[in-house]
């Protein structure tokens, strides 16, 4: 048995830790690494695919040459369209907190209601004083009950 066939036999049956240094480098990694594509590369492939549209078999040839799948490229196309439409429709900045706005408005209205009720109370006191002054001076007032009108 020659040395090369012996090495091949070891590569197929042994783990990378039990092999000599030279053979260990030639082994495939235990866990494959996921390919990551840059946005520029994705756009380039999408543009090249658009150029291939009219030619028979050109799309499949390009995908095979680049080692890509049609579903993968379709997903890239969808992401690109979604990004473009999303960029046009989205408003920039933080999202409005509607609950905080509602709570702030409620607090403002409660404060305004308290202020108006205090002014009403003061007006009623002034009216009562005017009634008493008119009684003392003997000025006859029409019979009108403010409190029964309010309720």
Tell me briefly what this model is:
By secondary structure, the protein is mainly α. The protein has 7 helices and no strands.
What does this structure look like?
This protein is 68% helix and 0% strand. Helix 3 crosses helix 5. Residues 1-12 have low confidence and may be disordered. With 151 residues, it is mainly α. The longest helix is centred in the C-terminal third of the chain and has 40 residues, at 98-137.
- Mean pLDDT over the residues: 79
* Structural class designation: mainly alpha
Question: What is the helix fraction of residues, given as a range?
Answer: 55-70%
The largest pleated sheet is described as: none
Radius of gyration, taken over Cα atoms and rounded to an integer in Å: 42 Å
Counting DSSP H or I runs of 4 or more residues, the number of helices is 7
- Spans of at least 5 consecutive residues with low confidence: 1-12
In total, how many beta strands? 0
Q: How much of the polypeptide forms β-strand, as a percent range?
A: under 5%
Topology as a string of helices (H) and strands (E): HHHHHHH
Tell me the span between the first and last alpha carbons. Answer: 113 Å
Q: What does the overall shape look like?
A: rod-shaped
List keywords for this structure.
disordered N terminus, 151 residues, mainly alpha
């Amino acid at each position: 048995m020659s040395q090369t066939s012996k090495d091949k036999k070891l590569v197929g049956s042994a783990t990378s830790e039990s092999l000599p240094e030279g053979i260990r480098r030639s082994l495939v990694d235990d866990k494959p690494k996921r390919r990551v594509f840059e946005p520029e590369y994705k756009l380039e492939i999408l543009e090249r695919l658009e150029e291939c549209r009219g030619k028979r078999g050109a799309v499949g040839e390009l995908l095979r040459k680049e080692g890509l799948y049609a579903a993968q490229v379709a997903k890239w196309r969808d992401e690109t369209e979604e990004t473009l439409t999303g960029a046009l429709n989205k408003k920039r900045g933080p999202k409005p907190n509607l609950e905080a706005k509602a709570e702030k408005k409620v607090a403002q209205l409660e404060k305004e209601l308290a202020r108006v009720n205090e002014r009403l109370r003061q007006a009623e006191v002034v009216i009562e004083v005017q009634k008493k002054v008119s009684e003392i001076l003997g000025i006859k007032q029409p019979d009108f009950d403010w409190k029964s009108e309010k309720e």
